Each structure stands twice: as structure tokens, then as C-alpha cells.
Amino acid sequence: MANYKDEKLTEEMYGVPTNETVRRGSVVDDVFGEIKEDGPNYRDVGWLGTVALMMKTQIGLGVLSIPAVLDTLGLIPGIICLIAIAVITTWSDYIVGVFKLNHRSVYGIDDAGQLIFGRAGKEVFGIVFVLFWIFVAGSGMLGISIALNAMSLHGACTAIFVAVAAIAGFLLGSIQTLGRISWLAWVGVIAIMTAIFTCTIAVGIQDRPAAAPQTGHWESDYKLFNKPTFVEAVSACSSLVFAYAGTPAFFSIVSEMRDPRHYTRSLVICQSAVTITYIVIGVVVYYYCGSFVATPALGSAGVTVKRVCYGFALPGLLVTTTLVIHLPGKYIFLRILRGSKHLTSNSMIHWGTWLGCTGGVTIIAYAIASAVPVFGGLVSLIGALFGTLMSFQPMGFMWLYDNWGKQRNGKWYAMVAWAVFVIVSGTFLMIAGTYGSIVGIMDSYKAEGGSSAWSCADNSNSVGLA
Fold first, then answer.
1. What is the pLDDT of residues 47-65, one digit of tens each?
2. Which helix (H) or strand (E) covers residue 35, if one does?
3. What angle do CA 378, 200, 314 make, to 5 degrees?
4. Which SS3 state, helix, strand or coil, does residue 227 take?
5. Euclidean distance between CA atoms 287 and 79, whole angstroms
């Protein structure tokens, strides 16, 4: 890492005001302690690397559930809901960066919870953070197994593919710093974007989607407006929230940035690209497929295109799994070693603790991916319950915490109303989405009898991919 020699250089790198102190050959960070040249550099993510990490936590194969959301809500209401959720979550993401600059000792959402709600807030948000990402990691492993099944035409037992995904995720997720993972994030972003745009182009140039009748005249039955039930509507909105639910990871990302002042620049680029991608993919695929869109939509253009798309998507799925193993592992690692000299050294205690944390996360995620019946519905439930809780309510409270004592004028009252709206809307979506997910799990189990644990059956035509 760089040899920081004076306070002025540190202020240029880390912003003003700063509580970080400088020693020759090292920087003392409020979260990680003394970062030495011979140890892991936990402050080495540039603003472009931040863009890649942000986009990879947001864009997964979950984007391909958006055409089905538009089918449920109708094209126009669906786009309106997507943009509304994009605006709210972008504001939430922005508040993460502002809160970090105001409180340099904050590493994760649990630290923010402790400042606002005390020790109870720290523990509740910490547990929810870890559970959320572990379940997403399990979904990532499932996604890799689906891709391998699709590409190989079920060339091996699905349980073997899930185990392979777990091993690969553990090895890459155990890379020590996000700075070293950021180049992988670019690979993942390019891979997943190639896959979804290949699928989009394919459905546009083909005569009809794979699920539609293959004989006789056919035209898309897309709807500008639809009449979903309450459960269908809230489940669709929960899918949109989950598509933007990378917010809790942004705490970890901004904490490892070289210059956190560039966070907002990275955020604007990320959210603009993500939202444009979601709208383009959703509208084009739904317009050409109508109610015959597959979920996930990679199967909409037929078996051959599906295999090609999953081939492109596989590196992206692997990087997603890498990140969502790394994030909870890093959180647990910091809870154990924060304040210790072993946190930023290459000691045996450092490596043993680090590998134990990422290994533990991997094992639990693997067990969930392999053993839990009606897995897609369960992931949807976790996304609705925990993903919303991590992306809406805390940021409203964070703004109120930092601004409650400031001068009260028209702008202040408007922002208070907005923060309260974010808290209330997040709570409604969390409760309603959880209810919708539970109903969906019950209906799925009644219809299919659930799925067996450690199954060898081909899952490449299943749904529930996060």
C-alpha cells in the first residue's frame, strides 16, 4: 500500500474532517485499526471498483424475474413501481455514504443500529445482516447448479453441482479484501449483462417464445394494465425490492474505499445503469413474450439459447456467490478480531479466524441450498422480510438521527416527511411481502409437495433464483 507520510495527504485521501491518524508506512483506520504495508490493505477500493462491486450486489439473475413482474402488474404499473422503488433505494444507498462520512467508526448496518437504538439495535441488525446474506449465498449456489445443469443437459447429480458451487464460492470468497475482489466484480458484471442482453435479443428476433404454442398464428398477449390479487401484487413488488436489495452491502463497500467522498459518484453510475438495464430487459422481454415469459427469463428463447445464456451467466453467478460469502464472513471476522493486532496482520490467528468465518458461512449456505424444501419460496420470504428491512427503514432512521437537532425550516420538514414515508412504506412492504411469500410457499407445497433434500433431479427448469 502507499506510504502515507503526513496528515495533509491523509486528508486528501480520506476526506475532511477525518479521525484517522497517520504513522510512517501505515494508516490507522477507525474500523480496521492500523493498516500496515505488510498486511492486508482494507482501504484499497477505488471509485470504479466500487461501481463494479455495487452493480454486482444488485444485478443477478433476479433481473430476469422482472418480465414476470410486469406480467403480474401490467407494463405501465410495473414500470412505475420499479422506478418508485429505484428512487427510494437510491436515496437509502446515498444515506449510507453520508452516514459513513459522519460516523467514521461505522462499518456495517449493525454499527448504525447501535448508534440509533443501542446494543439491541446492533445485535438485531447484525443477525439480520448475516442471515440475509447467508440465504442469498445459498441462492447463489443454487443458481450455479441450475446453470451447470442447463449447460450440461443434467450431466451430473444436482447435489454434486451444489457442492462444487460451495467449494468454488468458499475459495474465492476467502480473498481477504474487497479491493482484490473488485476486478472479479467487473468480470461478473460483464458476464451477467452479456447473458441477459443475449436473451433479450434472442426473444426479439425469434418468432415466438419457447413456452408459447409452436404451431399456428401467435402474437404477444402483453398487457399495459393487469388486475392482480393483493398477494400477487405484493409478491411482485417484493421481487422488485429484492432486485435493489444490495443496500446492506454498501456499508462494507464504502468502508473499504480509498476515498469515501467518491461514494456518491459511484452510486449514481451504479443505480443509473442498474435501473436502465432493469427497464430495458423487463420491457423488451415482456413485450415479445407476454404471459409466456419464463421465470427466470433465460429459458424464454428455447433450450439452445438458454444453454448459451447460462454459459455467459456462470461467471457472474460465481462472483455473486463469492461476494455474498465474503460479506457476512467479513462481518463476523470483524466482530471477533476488531481492536486486535491480528485483524490487519498475516498471523495464524488472523488466517484461522478468517477461513473459519468464510467456511462457516459457506457450510450453512450449502446446507440451506441443498436441504430446505420449497427453496425458491423460502428465499423469497427471506428477501421480503430481511431484504426490505435492510434497505428501507434503517436509512430513514439514520437521516432522522443525524438531522433531528438541526434548524427546522421548510426543507427540514419535507425531509422528515420523506424519511418517515421511507420507514412506513418499508414496513408495509416487509409485512405484506412476507405474507405474500408465506402464501406462495403454502400454495407451492400443496401443488408440488415440496422438493427433496440433496436431490439429484434436474433443477434447470425450476424457479426461485435470486
1. 999 999 999 998 876 677 8
2. strand 33-36
3. 55
4. coil
5. 13
What residues contact residue 410 under an 8 Å CB cut-off, 6+ apart? Answer: none
Residue 187's region, left for phi above 0, alpha for psi from -120 to 50, else beta, is alpha
Alpha helices in 174-262 (DSSP H): 178-205, 230-243, 247-255
Task: List the CATH code of the domain at 45-448.
Answer: 1.20.1740.10
**What is the band of 167 on the pLDDT scale with cuts at 50, 70, 90?**
very high
Cell of residue 186, nine digits = 467487473
Q: Are 437 and 235 in contact (CB under 8 A)?
A: yes
The pTM assigned to this predicted structure is 0.89
Average pLDDT over residues 84-108: 95
Give Cα 250 distance to the centre of its chain.
10
How many angstroms separate the CA atoms of 250 and 267, rounded?
9
For 110-159, give the DSSP string: HHHHHHHH-HHHHHHHHHHHHHHHHHHHHHHHHHHHHHHHHHHTS-S-HH
Output DSSP code: residue 408: -
Single-letter amino acid, residue 321:
T
Question: Residue 8 has what pLDDT?
Answer: 39
Q: pLDDT-based confidence at 23, cuts 50/70/90?
A: very low
Which run of H or of E encompasses 23? strand 21-23
d(CA 242, CA 379): 10
Phi, then psi, of 351 in degrees rounded to 5 = -70, -40
